[in-house]
Amino acid sequence: MSARPASPVVGITLRPQPGGDDRPARLVQNRAYFDALEAAGAVPLGIPLLGDPDRLRALYERCDAICLPGGPDVEPNRYGEEPRADVTLHTAGELDETEALLVRWLVAEDRPTLAICRGMQMLNVALGGSLWQDVEAQQASPRSHEQRSSRTLLAHDVHIEPGSLLHRVVGVDTLAVNSLHHQAVHRIGEGLHVSGRADDGIVEALELPDRRFLLAVQWHPEELAGEQEWARRLFGALVSAAR
């Protein structure tokens, strides 16, 4: 009987959840990420917020790949702006610090990475880019990209650049995706290439060329992996690169 291939370890950051009353603060993450990674053949490993970079590095070294998930807003001061008075932001500076360090390592060392929603925004900011603090408030688009009614509703199309990594993975020119964000990529970070946009021009996918696998998407494939083959392919491609 042939040996079963080793399952790559994919690290995924945990986000802080404040306590209240008698409830302690927690580190949490949406189970859908773990389920999608496990279904793709990975061993998901939660990465906590560690104040000691050496201990964070020790955990990172155990990961064959990284998933940067959705979560709170990135602090505007990280891209040289003050928070807008007309926008409500929910930030987590400790998470920003952890993920910025992870981005520095994974880019320098070509660690396979899939970044999702906030993860794409954090990747962009860590590489010198900026964000629209609020798509509606700043009139970056004539419509909202924050679909509140359902996490699986296919809200709009994404047009994919032919020949891009994203195009090779999903195998189609256009995808109908869910949309759960109020912020979006504005100025593109150093070295990043736009490989997908919505009809209104909002950046929906980024990648770093000439890497094993570094792909970022603005939508949430983990919520669609149970029903969309292309969503499963994104996680499968990450796991294949990690092997």
Report on this model:
By secondary structure, the protein is an alpha/beta fold. The protein has one domain (9-242): Class I glutamine amidotransferase (GATase) domain (Rossmann fold), CATH 3.40.50.880. It has helices at 31-39, 53-60, 93-109, 118-126, 165-170, 229-242; strands at residues 9-13, 15-17, 26-28, 43-47, 65-68, 113-116, 131-132, 156-160, 174-177, 184-185, 193-198, 203-207, 214-217. The radius of gyration is 17 Å and the shape is globular. It starts with 8 loop residues before the first strand and ends with a helix.
Task: State the helical fraction.
Answer: 25-40%
Q: Could you say which structural class the secondary elements and strand pairing correspond to? A: alpha/beta
Figure out the total of helices: 6
> Which architecture per CATH?
3-Layer(aba) Sandwich
Shape: globular
Kindly give the count of domains. Answer: 1
Low-confidence stretches: none
What can be said about the biggest beta sheet? 9 strands, mixed
The topology string of helices and strands comes to EEEHEHEHEHEEHEEEEEH
- Termini Cα gap: 21 Å
Radius of gyration over C-alpha positions, nearest whole angstrom: 17 Å
Multimerization state: single chain
How many runs of DSSP E, i.e. beta strands? 13
CATH class: Alpha Beta
* Mean pLDDT, all residues: 92
CATH fold field value: Rossmann fold
Side-by-side strand order of the widest sheet = 4-1-5-6-13-12-11-8-9
Bin the strand percentage: 15-25%
CATH superfamily: Class I glutamine amidotransferase (GATase) domain
